[in-house]
Amino acid sequence: MRKIERQMVATITAEKIYDYCEEYCAILRSKLIQWRIKLHRESIMRGNDDSDYHIKKIENLLLGKDDTLGSYTITEGKKYYKIVQNDTGRSVHAFVNKSNGDVYKAASWASPVRDARYNLLLDDARAVLFNSVDPFGSYLYKR
């Protein structure tokens, strides 16, 4: 393959990985909303809390009006995309290798753990990742 063709393939791959990262962030946010709704429903079912408050919070979550929810954003570094959770503070949820799509658990703000957990470019691995996502990152631990 010529150099220009390799560069085109690398560009297409990088764009595809970024698109998958955006989808990943959207799924994380959706899972966070589901978790919050579940907590509010449990409070209503217990009957010992102000149910009107919880009903209003559920409505706001469903309408996307809860400004306390936070978001997930993508920050681009030299080698990785950082999936950053923005709520009361900022924390790295995961790292994604920009060149090959490997997904890593965060070891710190600046670096991932050594072993990749998933790969966004492999259909089966991506499906498993997207189906097992939770807002807390427990799916990124090795089992």
Give, in spatial order, the strands making up the sheet with the most strands: 1-2-3-4-5
Low-confidence stretches: none
The helix tally amounts to 3
Strand tally: 5
In this structure, how is the largest beta sheet organized? 5 strands, antiparallel
Please tell me what the overall shape is.
Answer: elongated
**How many discrete domains?**
1
Q: How far from one another are the termini?
A: 40 Å
Helices and strands, in N-to-C order? Answer: HHEEEEEH
Secondary-structure-based class equals alpha+beta
Helix percent band: 40-55%
Mean pLDDT: 88
Gyration radius from CA atoms, angstroms: 18 Å
Please report which band the strand proportion falls in: under 5%, 5-15%, 15-25%, 25-35%, 35-45% or over 45%.
Answer: 15-25%
Characteristics:
single chain; 47% helix; 3 helices; 143 residues
Compose a concise summary of this entry.
This protein has 143 residues and is of the alpha+beta class. The chain has helices at 3-46, 51-63, 123-132; strands at residues 71-76, 80-86, 90-97, 102-105, 118-119. It has three helices and five strands, in the order H-H-E-E-E-E-E-H.
Description:
The chain has one domain (3-140). It has 3 helices and 5 strands. A 5-stranded antiparallel beta sheet has the order 1-2-3-4-5. By secondary structure, it is α+β, with helices and mostly antiparallel strands. 47% of the residues lie in helices and 19% in strands. Helix 1 (3-46) runs antiparallel to helix 2. It starts with a helix and ends in an 11-residue tail after the last helix. Strand 1 and strand 2 (80-86) form a beta hairpin. The protein is elongated.
